[in-house]
Amino acid sequence: MEILELQIKDIRSKHIGEQVKIKGRASNIGTQYPVYTRVAYQCLRCGHTTYVEQNSFKLEEPLAGCEEETCGKKGPFKLILKDSTIIDVQNIIILEEVTVPVREGIVKSIKGFLMRDAVGLALEDETYHFTGNLSTIDAGKGKLEYVLYIYKVENVQKEAPAPSSEPTSISKKNKIRTMKDCIKKISDNSGINKAPLDEVYKIVEEEGIDRNTAEELIKKMKQRGDLFATDQLHIRIIP
Ligand SMILES: [Zn+2]
User: Fold this and answer.
1) What spacing in Å lies between the alpha carbon of 68 and ligand 1's midpoint?
2) How far apart are CA 71 and CA 51, in angstroms?
């Protein structure tokens, strides 16, 4: 079945019953609780067991009574735990990801149920892709609301951080390391334990450091005591 990727604000009634993937922030994560999906009811009059699929989170007894042909009594029934199917469920509210200031003033949200293995996968305030069946539940006063029965929770790849001074200094650090490595390699291969500057410029350029940057970095590395000039044309790394 195809999975629809939707934003919470775009959910419509035509999507009910569809597999839906929603990106959002986990909020109001509740404590897990058991839910019966199929209950074995033993008739206390004839002993026959009638199985009832549970479609809501409320326990429903056999609507048409005991399924034993000659019995058909409306109970009483005894729930047989070992023959019933129980799953774990956890309530959650998914908040729409807000990347631009919210104009409406309200962040859209949808109620969700983390089902079975999806229980415990979401952490408060983290953003995930939630995949599940879109359905409705009674919201009281004759109203329905959308809910997502979630069976899959995936981490969202963190987007690259916005440019700031931090990445620059990190990349500068990396460049200095590259410079050091190159200069050391050239020195080691030179047989004179020093690196000819023109060769350094040539090699580091292949590593993506242009001449101007390389000159600047060498100047800085001299100040830091990383290297020194043995003469006008050669440098040496200070071990
Ligand atoms: Zn019966």
Assistant:
1) 5
2) 15
